[in-house]
Amino acid sequence: xxxxxxxxxxxxxxxxxxxxxxxxxxxxxxxxxxxxxxxxxxxxxxxxxxxxxxxxxxxxxxxxxxxxxxxxxxxxxxxxxxxxxxxxxxxxxxxxxxxxxxxxxxxxxxxxxxxxxxxxxxxxxxxxxxxxxxxxxxxxxxxxxxxxxxxxxxxxxxxxxxxxxxxxxxxxxxxxxxxxxxxxxxxxxxxxxx
Length: 194
Fold this sequence. Notes:
By secondary structure, this protein is mainly alpha-helical. The protein has one domain (4-193). The chain has six helices and no strands. It is elongated, with a radius of gyration of 20 Å. The termini are far apart. The relative contact order is 0.16. The mean pLDDT is 88.
């Protein structure tokens, strides 16, 4: 395992901090909206067993995670190799033993992990009330409504995070992402009752 200062160094020389943040937010948002959509679909449909809901949500969460890891790794590995090749051409030398070559190998792995873990972890947080309810833990509200509330809060927090990064109003940014979540709920409702 790489020490944290080595990881920071590799990210700095490749200028990929921003890419990792974007992947975290984009795929975290995808995970949250996907779970929200699934749970809303179950809510507006025939009553379902919580285990069926958990399995459907877990299947989607795992698929999002695997897709995120594999797609980011393949694309970032190609980009890093290309950047290293261009740098070698510009410097007219072999950089295979340099920090840049190490970054070309390691940064795609880091970005892939962020890209895959963001939707998986956020999805697991959202479905946690469903799972807790099946273990016999009594929740203060329905596990389905609690899962929906967690999804909405996480979507709002992702917007807040974006606002803080971009230097705009965190509240405005949070409300923008929240409006997307509410629009998603409305669209699902309209399609379910139609």
